[in-house]
């Protein structure tokens, strides 16, 4: 039989995946949409590459959240579908996978699903495309293959058939014998996967995935309160079976563990800690480098001005609006440029440091030189130095007194300030880092999200204060990190990312090049003002939108182990562009910059 | 409050764990039994170490499968308990964790459970020990804390209380408010752990843990048969979301993927492959080294004789009984000694090679020199060369003709032959290796088991032919492997492991030293003939027993990346000593050899 493989099943760039599939003897591929979006090849070039390799494009996938929705939503879905059918024609793909809706807008109404799938199939037929409808095991209303088949049968359209996926059928424990009732010609596609059984029972969960209190989803504190209320006076003891801790350094795991018990005791009231002093802003970010020249060039292009120099150390202060970056050239040449320290504005630095110390954060030497200001500083688990700096006058910028002015700070431009800092964590210590930032600094943690790097999955979790003036994104990957791609980065907020990006380029800065396929997809998903999308395409600006507003962002070249991001964030948007991360990471791996 | 941590929560040796816990500020520890067994420190030395570090031993754990069993089983359980209470007295631990039974022998009878727990607590009280009874979330009959409490309350013994564990309570979704009904003084211990929620839903299962057909637990072939019977004639397409494949080399993943589809098609009858020719024995194992001296010394001590030398290559044949080992000195000096090739006896080597080739196994050059015998050889995914050799006369030992005799093969001693070969796999390719050995060679795979290496979990899965004359254990770890510990090894079967071990030592061979705590535990678990256990203790022989019989084994020092195991296996025993692996691996990490 004709054999095929979905590109999502393989690691790497789309061209690497296609080559590997062809060499292994596959006859065709399913093109996974995200792989296409992240590829610099146009649809025509991908089609030609497949033809050269002797691969047929058997399927384009997935098209999501199409059916059983209110009519105005469906109108926009059809518009999106037309874009994709056009893309498929360019690609030479004749079958599209439509998976059952998971949208909260979807209605539990098979008649509507069938009717809208007929409309979709009518349009598909104009492009000589077939629609293969698949029940996702977690579909909102349609989640079994027999349900999907009832809808397809009721629709009765020649361009509409069913896609069967062994995972979705067998993972649900559906009786597969019902397949016999489906006419073979209406089974448009068959996707195969196996999976280990049992996926995860409570025994596996317990043996491999326990974590320290505050790092998971249990209300451990609530339970401890009940146990204490019952009169228990014995030890609080941690018993955590965890595959990661089995490999990690025992010393730092033990510190992480004990910190979690201290925070738990604070929560249940059996121990008192100095209360958290939540930082109120990012005073500065400090880059450590042996050679200031490359990073200075990027900073200058970004609009930063070198305004001051430390009186006793080889440290320059660069300012742009409210964003301040220290460039410290005391690094060993082999280290490369890296983000070494963060200055956090605090209503009470000494109290914040006392809490950090009580929670096992190493307190760092507080003074760089005898004549320097006294600074409270602690080390985060990843080694980043956190300086705790007075935010109130007259102490405001006490640290600034250690610097001699070189020239006046220019006027604030475009509201530039630090939007967020992104720090790559050593993978054994991701949960520790999150608990540290929550427990020690009093920041709130968002849910963690998966980011599909082409060479391995990464996890990201952001911590922030309530007004978003301090945001830190922590990321980690199971794979050894490519330090130029998985570098730390500094995201600068601006009121106008298009203007900021143009100005950066005009000053000689180089921005990350984003594939054209990405912008074709944006055009299918959103409507834009005249010229808006063209500007994004020209400048490599990525775009995301949710109920809270839009998020526009672009990336600079990487210097050593640091790069910069320009961000235009609507006040109600609290994301970090996770949806765009696969495209961004692929472009960074490929090292593609705008010319 | 007094804070404590179970040693199982940390990585490393017991002494590393204790040091880390003390440094982080813990007041006490739970000693996890396996950590004690793997430690070279005696209970008294552990007690002293804890005292020096300011750690109290708050708990000894776990005691398993004690209660609600038939009386004769309980008598043996009490005997085991007495050993452990004695150990705890030496250790200075006053509370033992008894977790609810998971044994198939357990009865659903709370009255019996209470009665036997009273008997156990009576005995514990003699040692001034308290028994903390805990409901495991997967206990056979007792799996909720309120059920465990009803039993403890009914038992009404002062030395018997309950142990509460946040994981077991919250993972089951039990209402924790029932804790209020338990008198505080009857809560003997509180164990804390958090866990991510949801542990694993079908969406997570699908996105991260799919695998290729034949590598999981689904009946994918059964489904495909139904789909074909329905008349489907489209592609067979793989759609596999898998975190490991996302990181692995796309080329080898694609080969693995295509092989799985070929085997699937063979299973459903849409493709024909040359049928499998199951190997019937291990003809030889070949070691590649730059310096034959160290390995030759070990082989000689094991009783091997150098019987022949290859006519054209720097390869010696060593024989002992039916075990044959080739020592090839053509290695680059930097490579170190490694297990490079396996000779498998086959009823039809050419047919076996045809199947291997059809399943993408690289076929290796079949002839070492023009005058050498024609050999069929393929490469396994880990690079091990598999020679397929005629097992029938007159071709038997055709390969042997390439060797010139040096001296006669000595008489077979103690039935020595190769019991099994253990190969460490690159971690991205573990499932591929299993499918290769099953699909290409026609071997059967056992269930995979977890092995707790002190520095990270490992997985092991054995493949074997029906009569056990070919057994290969494949192991993999998530952590980078320590190549001296996670070396390949050759296990030699003997009829008398005590005699073989003695003879090896007498000849100057060095065996792995096994901690005394391990033998104290054996004494608690099994009864031995007079002098039997003492012999094991003297020689570092490990012991396992199941319904199929006993398995006795010991390990030699490691040479480069190879070591040897001596095995005495009852015919009905099909294991590989997995239960002893944590102790063995810890001893190998520590590099402890018998003097």
TrEMBL record, chains A, B:
GO molecular function, one term: 3-dehydroshikimate dehydratase activity
Pfam families linked to this entry: AP_endonuc_2, Glyoxalase, Glyoxalase_5
Enzyme class: lyase
Catalyses which reaction(s): 3-dehydroshikimate = 3,4-dihydroxybenzoate + H2O
Annotated residues for binding of a divalent metal cation: 134, 165, 191, 239
One GO BP: 3,4-dihydroxybenzoate biosynthetic process
List of residues binding Mg(2+): 420, 489, 565
InterPro entries: DSD, Glyas_Bleomycin-R_OHBP_Dase, Glyas_Fos-R_dOase_dom, IolE/XylAMocC-like, VOC_core, Xyl_isomerase-like_sf, Xyl_isomerase-like_TIM-brl
Keywords: Lyase, Metal-binding
Required co-factors: a divalent metal cation
Location of the VOC domain: 281-391, 417-557
Stated role: Catalyzes the conversion of 3-dehydroshikimate to protocatechuate (3,4-dihydroxybenzoate), a common intermediate of quinate and shikimate degradation pathways.
Protein family: Belongs to the bacterial two-domain DSD family.
Protein name as it appears in the record: 3-dehydroshikimate dehydratase
């Amino acid at each position: 039989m004709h054999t095929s493989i979905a590109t999502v099943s393989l690691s790497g760039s789309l061209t690497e995946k296609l080559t590997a599939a062809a060499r292994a003897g596959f006859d065709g591929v399913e093109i996974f949409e995200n792989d296409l979006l992240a590829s610099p090849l146009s649809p025509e070039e991908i089609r030609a590459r497949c033809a050269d390799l002797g691969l047929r494009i058997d399927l384009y996938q997935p098209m999501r959240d199409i059916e059983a929705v209110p009519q105005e939503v469906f109108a926009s879905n059809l518009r999106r579908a037309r874009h994709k059918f056009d893309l498929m024609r360019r690609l030479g793909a004749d079958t599209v996978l439509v998976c059952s809706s998971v949208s909260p807008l979807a209605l539990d109404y098979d008649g509507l699903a069938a009717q809208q799938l007929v409309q979709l199939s009518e349009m598909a037929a104009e492009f000589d495309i077939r629609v293969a409808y698949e029940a996702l095991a977690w579909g909102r209303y349609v989640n079994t293959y027999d349900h999907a088949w009832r809808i397809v049968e009721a629709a009765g359209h020649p361009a509409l058939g069913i896609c069967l996926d062994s995972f979705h059928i067998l993972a649900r424990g559906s009786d597969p014998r019902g397949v016999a009732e489906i006419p073979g010609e209406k089974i448009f596609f068959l996707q195969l996967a196996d999976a280990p059984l049992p996926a995860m029972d409570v025994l596996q969960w317990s043996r491999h995935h326990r974590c320290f209190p505050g790092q998971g989803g249990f209300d451990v504190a609530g339970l401890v309160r009940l146990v204490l209320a019952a009169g228990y006076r014995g030890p609080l003891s941690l018993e955590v079976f965890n595959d990661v801790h089995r490999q990690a350094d025992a010393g730092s795991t033990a510190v992480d563990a004990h910190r979690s018990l201290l925070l738990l005791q604070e929560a249940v009231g059996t121990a008192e800690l100095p209360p958290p002093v939540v930082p109120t802003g990012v005073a500065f970010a400090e880059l450590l480098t042996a050679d200031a020249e490359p990073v200075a060039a990027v900073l200058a292009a970004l609009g930063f001005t070198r305004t001051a120099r430390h009186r006793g150390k080889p440290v320059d202060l660069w300012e742009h609006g409210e964003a301040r970056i220290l460039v410290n050239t005391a690094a060993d040449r082999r280290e490369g440029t890296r983000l070494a320290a963060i200055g956090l504005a605090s209503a009470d630095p000494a109290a914040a440091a006392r809490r950090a110390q009580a929670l096992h954060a190493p307190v760092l030497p507080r003074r760089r030189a005898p004549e320097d200001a006294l600074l409270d500083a602690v080390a985060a688990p990843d080694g980043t130095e956190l300086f705790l700096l007075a935010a109130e006058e007259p102490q405001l910028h006490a640290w600034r007194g250690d610097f001699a002015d070189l020239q006046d700070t220019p006027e604030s431009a475009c509201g530039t300030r630090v939007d967020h800092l992104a720090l790559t964590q050593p993978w054994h210590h991701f949960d520790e880092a999150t608990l540290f930032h929550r427990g020690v600094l009093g920041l709130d943690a968002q849910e963690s999200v998966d980011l599909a790097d082409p060479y391995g999955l990464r996890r990201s979790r952001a911590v922030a204060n309530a007004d978003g003036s301090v945001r830190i994104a922590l990321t980690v990957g199971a794979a050894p990190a490519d330090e130029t791609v998985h570098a730390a980065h500094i995201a600068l907020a601006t009121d106008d990312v298009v203007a900021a990006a143009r100005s950066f380029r005009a000053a000689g800065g180089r921005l990350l090049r984003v594939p054209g396929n990405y912008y074709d997809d944006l055009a299918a998903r959103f409507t834009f003002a005249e010229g808006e999308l063209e500007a994004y395409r020209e400048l490599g600006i990525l775009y995301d939108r949710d109920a809270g507003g839009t998020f526009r962002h672009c990336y600079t070249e990487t210097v050593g182990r640091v790069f910069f991001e320009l961000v235009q964030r609507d006040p109600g948007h609290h994301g970090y562009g996770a949806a765009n991360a696969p495209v961004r990471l692929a472009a960074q791996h490929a090292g593609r910059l705008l010319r």
